[in-house]
TrEMBL record:
Gene3D superfamilies on file: 3.40.50.2300, lambda repressor-like DNA-binding domains (1.10.260.40)
Protein name: LacI family transcriptional regulator
Cross-referenced SMART domains: HTH_LACI
UniProt-listed Pfam families: LacI, Peripla_BP_3
Keywords of this entry: DNA-binding, Transcription, Transcription regulation
Domain HTH lacI-type as annotated: residue spans: 11-65
InterPro entries: HTH_LacI, LacI/GalR-like_sensor, Lambda_DNA-bd_dom_sf, Peripla_BP_I
PANTHER family cross-referenced by the UniProt entry: HTH-TYPE TRANSCRIPTIONAL REGULATOR GALS, LACI-RELATED TRANSCRIPTIONAL REPRESSOR
Length: 342
């Protein structure tokens, strides 16, 4: 404190909020020109900024609050996979909306090689972001542990195992598989196949577990020749469907663990002269635009993808702000959306 009694450090956003008698978010919206602020609040914030000498630029805010004002969203996939998969785009939409409301910058990071992973690790070690959101995490992914060692807040989209300790937002993947098979069995299908995602991902294993639970509940025998693993791509669905038809040509139902997998399966069924749903009923997961645009329109298990992105961002923002550990592990419900494919 100087002899005059005046403060010598840079004023923070929190100090402006306290002087104006408003919340931190209101100050952020005023600074960034948002129309979602009352005239009275805008005037109060303006007076507080003038009295404290607050400089509303990102660099000054980072120095004042010891934060960068940025969050990294990490997707360990290629650009082609990112833009072909509606799931990722919906996650990004939800995260971006929530971070935008909190005046946080979103840094989208694709990791496609070991070299890129190493470069990102160095970036994190330099403390250039306030927190990390991780999407499409596989069982052996080292990034969550790295982030924890660096002391950075992190939230996963999905989880690596049932014992996941890092905060996460997931959906009821087991319930998704169970409801899909119950629907197919209810339509009289008795030889129901499954096209799984990559089984080093917990979500794919849970959907497979749900498939098996659904068969047992319907009194149908489990037949491993009716299960084929694939990556979450349309081409993966094509390969798996060809494999299944070669093994079990009499199959009459297919549960695909994503809408893109279902789209690939649909193309192969058509090539093989199998009608959907007359010969083979088909159910996917996601309820994406892919499901609505397929011919016939795809019955799919809806997971609230955009809401998952929002929840991830909220949990991360609470951690960054030093908030409590409530709602660290969130599992959102799924819902079967019936259309024409089965």
């Amino acid at each position: 404190m100087a002899a005059s009694g005046r403060r010598t450090g840079r004023p923070t956003l929190e100090e402006v909020a306290a002087r104006a008698g408003v919340g931190r978010g209101t100050v952020s919206r005023v600074v960034n020109g948002s129309p979602r602020v009352s005239d009275r609040a805008r005037e109060a914030v303006g007076r507080a900024i003038a009295e404290l000498g607050y400089v509303p630029d990102r660099a000054a805010r980072a120095l004042a609050g010891a934060r960068t004002g940025a969050v990294a969203l990490v997707v360990p996939e290629t650009e082609s996979r990112l833009f072909a998969e509606p799931y990722f785009l919906d996650i990004i939409r939800g995260v971006s909306a929530e971070l935008g409301d909190a005046d946080m910058q979103l840094l989208l990071t694709l990791i496609r090689s070991g070299r890129e992973r190493q470069r990102f690790e160095q970036y994190l070690a330099a403390q250039r972001v306030d927190g990390v959101l991780l999407v499409s995490v596989h069982r052996d992914d080292p990034l969550p542990e790295l982030v924890a060692r660096l002391g950075l807040p992190a939230v996963l989209n999905g989880r690596r195992s049932a014992e996941e300790r890092v905060p996460y937002v997931d959906c009821d993947n087991t319930g998704a598989g169970r409801s899909a098979v119950a629907h197919l069995a209810g339509r009289g299908r008795r030889r129901i196949a499954a096209i799984t995602g990559p089984l080093d991902m917990y979500a794919a294993r849970c959907r497979l577990d749900g498939y098996r639970d659904g068969l047992a509940a319907a009194g149908l025998p489990a037949d491993e020749r009716l299960v084929a693993e694939a990556d979450f791509t349309e081409e993966g669905g094509r390969r798996a469907m060809r494999e299944l038809l070669g093994r079990r040509p009499g199959l009459d139902g297919v549960f695909a663990a994503s809408d893109l997998l279902a789209a690939g399966a649909r193309a192969v069924l058509r090539e093989a002269g199998r009608r959907v749903p007359e010969d083979v009923a088909l159910v996917g997961v996601d309820d994406s635009a892919v499901a609505r645009l397929m011919d016939p329109a795809l019955t799919s298990v809806r997971q609230p993808i955009e809401e998952m992105g929002r929840r991830m961002a909220r949990i991360l923002l609470r951690q960054i702000a030093g908030g409590g550990a409530d709602s660290r592990h969130v599992v959102l419900p799924t819902e079967l959306v019936v259309r024409d494919s089965g």
